[in-house]
Inverse folding.
């Protein structure tokens, strides 16, 4: 007997409970949703008469993941139009470049040292590079730091990450999903993906007056159906040429953000973003086997440590380049340390490409740890800076004493 409707009801009930618990604790909902999915999915334990495998229907799991990605990326595109990205200026480009360079290089090097194949190295670098815009935005709002001097730089870096993600995901998805192995095939796949992105952005910008007329629809019902039709069609077209469907959704958001209907679209799409976004994280948890996480513990812990060090360094460098104070620069690095939806998108891409199975539990643990640590470190950023200041101040004083001691030693035949 098909229990699909019952399982959907159970899933939504569990998601609502997890969201209510995270709201009560004033914490990010992401780790709660992933953990909930892990303990009730098809990999959950069965102990005697107690069967925790409440959600087992494969179509439901796939539905949760794919629709959630589309709406998350579509909304993100609406938030950051092409024109806004162009106007963002030097601070975003410089700060974002510093952040991406440090974290991407660290991710590539770490995965290479782990002995993973090239495709897995590319996926792992994507997992460890991109921050979670959803978690970062929520943390800034919850801690009432929207007026802080570093917040503009933080949002700028997130926007730069999104640009990098669009190009990187399109290239890597072409390599992973098309199955090419030769250098010529890789370059061809990358060129096709980039052509799709740049061509759509160019056509979309030129067609803005036409889009304004096409979507001038009085009926909200017809208007929403037209938007959904474009969303799924464009995502599907991208998928047919081996560009991740999420990129099609992101590009549509960027194009429609240029139209006079952007505010109306954004207002109407928010409930779908929240609903399907919650399903996305919960659905990712359903795919994780808790008993298979053991082999990913040390790789994930190593990646977390590397990310923390890289983020502090990147935040300090990017902040100082934007002429922020040292505390504000440190807060920049700590605020964007959280990982979430984009890391999971990369892990799902690896699964679609039949890459090493360790990437799924690796991404799950990595995201869980940083989704918890990120908000905590951001909240305590002032205390962390004071601790660093005392530590480095003490080290500087010791170094000065050693230099003075060396200079005060009289020269003798034994010292020469």
């Amino acid at each position: 007997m098909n229990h699909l409707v019952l399982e959907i009801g159970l899933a939504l009930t569990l998601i609502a409970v997890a969201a209510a618990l995270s709201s009560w604790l004033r914490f990010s909902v992401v780790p709660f949703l992933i953990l909930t999915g892990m303990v009730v999915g098809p990999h959950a334990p069965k102990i005697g008469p107690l069967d925790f495998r409440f959600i087992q229907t494969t179509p439901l799991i796939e539905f949760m993941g794919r629709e959630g990605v589309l709406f998350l990326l579509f909304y993100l595109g609406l938030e950051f139009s092409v024109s806004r990205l162009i106007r963002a200026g030097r601070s975003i480009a410089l700060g974002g470049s510093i952040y991406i360079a440090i974290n991407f290089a660290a991710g590539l090097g770490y995965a290479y040292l782990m002995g993973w194949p090239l495709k897995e190295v590319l996926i792992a670098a994507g997992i460890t590079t991109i921050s979670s815009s959803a978690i970062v935005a929520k943390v800034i709002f919850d801690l009432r730091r929207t007026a802080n001097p570093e917040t503009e730089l933080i949002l700028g870096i997130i926007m730069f990450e999104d640009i990098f993600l669009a190009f990187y995901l399109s290239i890597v998805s072409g390599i992973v999903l098309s199955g090419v192995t030769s250098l010529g095939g890789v370059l061809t796949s990358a060129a096709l993906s980039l052509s799709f992105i740049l061509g759509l952005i160019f056509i979309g910008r030129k067609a803005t007056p036409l889009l304004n007329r096409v979507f001038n629809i009085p009926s909200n019902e017809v208007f929403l159906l037209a938007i959904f039709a474009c969303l799924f069609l464009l995502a599907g077209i991208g998928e047919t040429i081996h560009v991740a469907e999420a990129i099609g959704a992101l590009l549509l958001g960027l194009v429609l953000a240029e139209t006079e209907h952007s505010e109306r679209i954004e207002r109407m799409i928010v409930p779908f973003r929240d609903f399907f976004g919650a399903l996305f994280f919960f659905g990712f948890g359903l795919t994780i086997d808790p008993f298979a996480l053991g082999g990913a513990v040390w790789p994930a812990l190593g990646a977390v440590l590397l990310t923390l060090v890289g983020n502090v360094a990147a935040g300090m460098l990017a902040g100082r380049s934007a002429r922020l104070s040292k505390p504000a620069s440190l807060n920049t690095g700590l605020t964007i340390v959280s990982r979430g939806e984009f890391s999971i998108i990369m892990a799902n891409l690896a699964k679609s490409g039949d890459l090493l199975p360790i990437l799924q539990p690796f991404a799950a643990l990595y995201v869980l740890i940083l989704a918890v640590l990120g908000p905590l470190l951001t909240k305590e950023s002032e205390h962390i800076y004071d601790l660093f200041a005392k530590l480095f101040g003490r080290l500087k004083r010791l170094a000065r004493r050693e230099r003075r001691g060396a200079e005060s030693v009289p020269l003798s035949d034994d010292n020469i």
Notes: The domain at 61-394 is CATH 1.20.1530.20 (Na+/H+ antiporter like fold).
